[in-house]
Amino acid sequence: MTRYKRTEILWMWISVLSVFIGLGIAVGAFGVNEFETAPMDMRIIDHKYSTIFCYTLSLQSEARFRAYRFTGDLRPRTRKRPFYKAEYTKYVDSGDYLYYNFYFLAGSSVSLISCSDHLVELYVIKGQGHFDQWKTNKNCSGCYVASAPVKVNGCFLNYNNYSLSTNETDTYFFVFMNRKQSTWVTAKFGISRVFYDLAYTTQMCVNKLGCRIPVEYNTDQRIVYHMTPKTTKSTMRMSSTCEARLSIFLTIFALGPAIFGLLLSLVIYFACSDPEPERILPRRRGVNLIINRPPELLDEECTPLLWETISSDPPQYDDINISASCPERPPSYEEIDKE
Question: Is the pLDDT of residue 5 over 80?
Fold first, then answer.
């Protein structure tokens, strides 16, 4: 294989890998982050976000929210805890489930009164990972922190009053599993929340459905959002999108591979050599004789391998080439017989 061919293959692989790795990081690591949120949730964006790779961060939501930018860490405000009430009634088919999820800071508390027309089960699950595990295995005993049956007419008699005080910041899921007859389920939440202290933050948008926030390069800037309580929805879809910092991606996935490819191309040029050319003798009787020797050495050869005629018959004197290095022809058969 020639040096040119080796270099061509090298640059082909460098181009393909650079494009696929760059797109994979841009889309997979720092692309669109979709998640669920609830009324009054206050949460720091910490997934698919980087001050190096992100030029801006765009937030989109089904309900209005506020967004703040800050540097460093936020401290929880434990003295003042706003209280929030919400009541939801939904229909659950037999064998199906419904859930409500809230993002609680450590120190928040919630009380839940629930009821149904038929018996259902309540599961309290902490963390998205445990909830995903429970969805694949409804009998997973290690997936939930508490469970209790929801009795019939519990809403009128204040039955099924479940209380929870959170000691860890996480997403908490309240899941109603209906293993029997289809029924209506009512859930009444009373939530006392701990929020972050926003005294040292910069407010970027107020009561918006969408917000585009610029991000300074290579800093410890972070973004926190706060959902409005004025919504009838129990769960809203929200997304954060990291808009790529083009200069960083071009430097890492274009300029970097180009320099690397140039260095390897120089190594191939100086460390490797092209294969020696092949010489094909004149074609006789449908046979080609290929000699892998430099042309300048062929003239010095005095061997029957260089005969012009390739035949299965015994070689003839007349078939031998006469060159400057072999000027004399061997004597003929007649001359030998005379002697």
Answer: yes
